[in-house]
Amino acid sequence: MSRSPSGDRVALWRNPTFRAYVLQGVLLAALAALIGFIVANTMANLEARGISTGFGFLDERAGFSIPQTLIEYSGDSTYGRTFVVGLLNTLLVSALGIVVATIIGFAVGIARLSSNWLLARLATAYVEIFRNIPLLVQILFWYFAVLQALPSPRQSLNLLDVIFINVRGLVIPDPQPLSGFAATPWSLLVGLIAAIALGVYAKRRQARTGKALPIYWLGAGLIIGMPLLVFLLTGAPLEWSIPELTGFNFSGGVRILPELVALWLALSIYTAAFIAEIVRSGIQSVPEGQVEAANALSLPGGITLRKVVIPQAMRVIVPQLTSQYLNLIKNSSLATAIGYPDLVAVFSGTTLNQTGQAIEIVAMTMAVYLVISLVVSALMNVYNARTLLKER
Q1: Contact, 280 vs 109, CB < 8 A?
Q2: What gap in Å lies between CA 371 and CA 325, rounded to an integer?
Q3: Looking at residue 10, what is its pLDDT?
Q4: Which of 24, 27, 251, 332 is deepest in the core (most CB within 10 A)?
């Protein structure tokens, strides 16, 4: 029994809160029973067909090569190693795509609102063309129609006899660190910390005196200048492996796969078209009075955009921008169409075909994309919370 607001005793089953808890408990139990039935039925079917389960296959020898690896890998490496290689390749193209798509998207979105008629129309044409062509078609276009039309290695496009572009990719010099190179990464960290400290100081100084520092130029100088200074003082502790044509291919240097370039271009250009519309809508959400007030203070257009409009527009831009970042990461799985060795291609593709461990491999792949998406969402939410306008 429970009591009503008037103090009268009522039956427990008439209490809405109690009924809600009971209903949720019944639904949760039913969901758990359904999941248990599916798992038990799946395990029984696999056992009946003689299919082994478990993750022991990750320690077995893979026996196949991967054209692009960010860590040491060979045909004798394990399937667990292929998982790591595919994951790193996925993270690489996703990170590159996010950076370039953001830059292009902001530039095109701002250009769409330009008073220059030609610039605004070109930006509009960009958005309308690239966001209405399927991403897979764009990937195939860049790979087959553009990059596969490049000359053979013997007729490579040559830049200063150190950079070569051909149908097999971009070949550039490979920096080989020597013993004195260890100090350079630490100097980069010191420069980054110094730039952050300078930013905090500049913000407090501006709040106290009203005088602003060119924090972007000073910060860039610290981040770039510190490693460069250490690099020069330690006697340039690098030697370069210059690519040379030997036979029908190049030896030495680093080769960037055309599959990576095609996927990178397609993901960046396609996602940038959506980001441009997000930026445009965010800027238009800022009241006109803010711009008029900045003009009344004789602020230049660039400062008005950077200091007045964009900071206020970010509260509208960031949530939608997060969705586009997640879409770009998940769309990178289309790499299988052109053979880029991402997680789906080398793990959910080749590894699955060789081992037959479908449940484990698909579950691991799904979990990876889920974790990546959740991490990106969390980081963007933290940034969004810091950029929200605080009411007084």
Answers
A1: yes
A2: 14
A3: 59
A4: 332
Give the architecture-level CATH label for domain 82-155+256-387.
Orthogonal Bundle (1.10)
- Which string of b and e fits 314-330 if b means at least 16 CB within 10 Å? bebbbebbbebbbbbbe
Grouping H, G, I as helix, E, B as strand and the rest as coil, residue 341 is coil
Domain range summary for the chain, segments of one domain joined by +: 2-44, 82-155+256-387
What is the token pair recorded at 384?
Answer: 């969004």
pTM over 0.85: no
Sorted by sequence, the CB contacts under 8 Å of residue 177 that are 6+ apart come out as 237, 238
Whose tokens are 């997060």? That residue is 322
Q: Reduced to 3 states, what is the DSSP secondary structure of residue 227?
A: helix
Q: Which residues pair with 2 in a beta bridge?
A: 10
Quote the pLDDT of residue 104: 95
Tokens for 317? 């831009």
- HEC sequence for 118-156: HHHHHHHHHHHHHCCCCHHHHHHHHHHHHHHHCCCHHHC
Spatial neighbors of 87 by CB under 8 A, at least 6 apart, are 343, 347, 368
